[in-house]
Amino acid sequence: DAGVTQSPTHLIKTRGQQVTLRCSPKSGHDTVSWYQQALGQGPQFIFQYYEEEERQRGNFPDRFSGHQFPNYSSELNVNALLLGDSALYLCASSLAEAEYEQYFGPGTRLTVT
Amino acid sequence: KQEVTQIPAALSVPEGENLVLNCSFTDSAIYNLQWFRQDPGKGLTSLLLIQSSQREQTSGRLNASLDKSSGRSTLYIAASQPGDSATYLCAVGSDRGSTLGRLYFGRGTQLTVWP
Lengths: 113, 115
Fold this sequence. Notes:
Oligomer: heterodimer
Mean pLDDT of chain B: 94
Helix content of chain B: under 10%
Mean pLDDT of chain A: 94
Low-confidence stretches of chain B: none
Radius of gyration of chain B: 14 Å
Number of strands of chain B: 11
Distance between the termini of chain A: 37 Å
Largest sheet of chain A: 7 strands, mixed
Distance between the termini of chain B: 41 Å
Number of helices of chain B: 0
Largest interface: A-B, 25 and 25 residues
Shape of chain A: globular
Number of helices of chain A: 0
Order of helices and strands of chain A: EEEEEEEEEEE
């Protein structure tokens, strides 16, 4: 049973560019949440997708957007990258009726130069 | 807004010691509390999940307790080993309507166990 997968593993971008990160949920899961973890900090909630719609959003600017596909996979898009966007981006999946049991992927390390 | 605090921020101990990591949270409207392990540069591995109606959970050498009314949880690690070296994160799942199911994390305790 495949767990949560994320791609790419690492990414280096220049300030002002745009980036897309991808997540495939654990088999059978229908809800995907994204978290940002800056160095030395705990993960911070970005948003959550269910049934292809954003169900909740944390305190992040509109430069952060997402999408969920019919197969439940998800993308996180960040526009106009800032140096402060450098972080580990974690994807977590869960079942809508058991949304509190979240399973995390290995993360994508984004470096903005 | 839920605030999660972990003490200590870092801990360095010799192999074999029993350890206690502390976590506190400000809003008692939680659905559950989860302890995670994170190795450097890696994702999160769930260690223990305690539902809000439970008092503790055990897995091997790990025991986690929850006192929801006082907003506290402890993770007890028995007979520590060098392989336990990692950052331990505490996360609470919100039970409030607008943030239902969202996880709030502490900054973690960085544990080093030396031989």
